[in-house]
UniProtKB/TrEMBL annotation:
Entry keywords, A to Z: 4Fe-4S, Cytoplasm, Disulfide bond, Iron, Iron-sulfur, Metal-binding, Methyltransferase, rRNA processing, S-adenosyl-L-methionine, Transferase, tRNA processing
Protein name: Probable dual-specificity RNA methyltransferase RlmN
Organism: Phytoactinopolyspora mesophila
Gene that encodes it: rlmN
SUPFAM superfamilies reported in the protein's UniProt record: Radical SAM enzymes (SSF102114)
Record field: catalytic activity: adenosine(2503) in 23S rRNA + 2 reduced [2Fe-2S]-[ferredoxin] + 2 S-adenosyl-L-methionine = 2-methyladenosine(2503) in 23S rRNA + 5'-deoxyadenosine + L-methionine + 2 oxidized [2Fe-2S]-[ferredoxin] + S-adenosyl-L-homocysteine; adenosine(37) in tRNA + 2 reduced [2Fe-2S]-[ferredoxin] + 2 S-adenosyl-L-methionine = 2-methyladenosine(37) in tRNA + 5'-deoxyadenosine + L-methionine + 2 oxidized [2Fe-2S]-[ferredoxin] + S-adenosyl-L-homocysteine
Broad class of the protein's primary localization: cytoplasm
Enzyme active site: 114, 371
Family: Belongs to the radical SAM superfamily. RlmN family.
PANTHER family: 23S RRNA METHYLTRANSFERASE (PTHR30544), RADICAL SAM CORE DOMAIN-CONTAINING PROTEIN (PTHR30544:SF5)
Entry cofactors: [4Fe-4S] cluster
Region called Disordered, residue ranges: 1-25
Top class in the EC scheme: transferase
Cofactor binding mode and count: Binds 1 [4Fe-4S] cluster. The cluster is coordinated with 3 cysteines and an exchangeable S-adenosyl-L-methionine.
Gene Ontology MF terms: 4 iron, 4 sulfur cluster binding; metal ion binding; rRNA (adenine(2503)-C2-)-methyltransferase activity; rRNA binding; tRNA (adenine(37)-C2)-methyltransferase activity; tRNA binding
Length: 379
């Protein structure tokens, strides 16, 4: 059963003005050298930047009162200039007994974005946070709530990182049932097209994966960056020296349908996107995930599964993993999830090609689980 921990008054979201300009500079926007330079510019010793980093990335605090190793005369100035508040929680919604928490955040300019924290218990516990990289999205995919909003703006490196730090605090403070824990996985599958905000997404990935105190110390192999198929950006990511997983949101194996479902396909066709994904595997050794939202009577036909199987296997074996995703429908939309038997047939057809297939565990249907739904509803 879903619970709503919002403390908002009706209409509060609509009354928040949108300001123009860039987000304030934040410690997480800067690499180690940049942080030391920023501190030195304020007349402080560069090692103060390392202390700030230990508090923010290691102890997960931006509260100057807790920074007792920094002189009281300077801690307010340093924290105020390098640890500004960038994301403000507007609403939490929880389901799965509290192990799934979706948060609506307000950015400094009034823009709204979302993240989802998911705790999976078991012999090897996994805690995944799904983060946004843009306010809105410019890709215009018709079945996606965010895609129908249009693009408001790119998020900064620190705004992206702040979602993860906030999730890490929730885990460390024991707010998620199961006791204190830590985030093990980050997926760029929230609002926005990550590759369209390439520089900030890569910088944020480095902040998340650099060892403390430079960053959060999350393993690179636990990070997944999704894309609808921006081919030049895929090739660029392959040369970054990162060990992250690439997820290609394909959703159709034929150009005719994908032109409709994923409009960027009119620029880079299915074959071009798959070839770029294969090159990513060749350069990094990291197996690519093919994301495929199953939409009833639209893209869930057995013949399309056969076509997808042929396209993937003709590019080799062992380089790809297919993730069919039962669509989280947007209220009022004609798009809805496939029937369970149709889904099973689709999966069996792919498996007949020797492909590894895992149906995505779609949490949060009862808390507006599709990314963009809370921001769109404005409640």
């Amino acid at each position: 059963m879903a619970t709503d921990s919002s403390a908002l008054k009706p209409g509060e979201l609509q009354l928040t003005p949108v300001r123009r300009g860039k987000p304030p500079r934040h410690l997480a926007d800067l690499d180690v050298a940049g942080r030391r330079q920023a501190v030195a510019e304020q007349g402080e010793q560069p090692f103060r930047a390392d202390q700030l980093s230990r508090h923010y990335f290691g102890r997960l605090t931006a509260d100057p009162e807790q920074m007792t190793d920094i002189p009281a005369s300077t801690r307010d100035q340093l924290s105020g200039s390098l640890l500004p508040s960038l994301v403000t929680p507007v609403r939490h919604m929880e389901t799965d007994g509290g192990s799934t928490r979706k948060t609506l955040w307000r950015l400094f300019d009034g823009s709204l974005v979302e993240s989802v924290l998911m705790r999976y218990s078991g012999a090897r516990e996994r805690v995944t946070i799904c983060v946004s990289s843009q306010a809105g999205c410019g890709m215009n995919c018709p079945f996606c709530a965010t895609g129908q909003q249009g693009l408001t703006r790119n998020m900064s490196t620190a705004e992206i990182v702040e979602q993860v730090v906030a999730g890490a605090r929730m885990m460390a403070d024991g707010e998620i049932p199961g006791g204190p824990g830590r985030i093990t996985n980050v997926v760029f599958m929230g609002m926005g097209e990550p590759m369209a905000n390439y520089k900030a997404v890569v910088s944020a990935t480095r902040r998340m994966t650099d060892p403390a105190p430079a960053g959060l110390g999350i393993g690179q192999r636990g990070v997944t960056i999704s894309t609808v198929g921006l081919v030049p950006a895929i090739d660029r990511l392959a040369d970054e020296g990162l060990s992250v997983t690439l997820a290609l949101s394909l959703h159709a194996p034929d150009d005719e349908l994908r032109d409709e479902l994923v409009p960027v396909n009119t620029r880079w066709k299915v074959a071009e996107a798959l070839d770029a994904a294969r090159r990513y595997f060749d350069r990094t050794g990291r197996r690519v995930s093919i994301e495929y939202a199953l939409i009833r009577d639209i893209n869930d036909h057995a013949w399309r599964a056969e076509m997808l199987g042929r396209l993937l296997t003709e590019r080799g074996r062992g380089w790809v993993h297919v993730n069919p995703i039962p669509l989280n429908p947007t209220p009022g939309s004609k798009w809805t999830a496939s029937d369970p038997e149709v889904e099973r047939t689709f999966v069996r057809t792919l498996e007949s090609f020797g492909l590894p297939v895992t149906v995505r565990d779609t949490r949060g249907r009862d808390i507006d689980g599709a990314c963009g739904q809370l921001a769109t509803s404005g409640v």
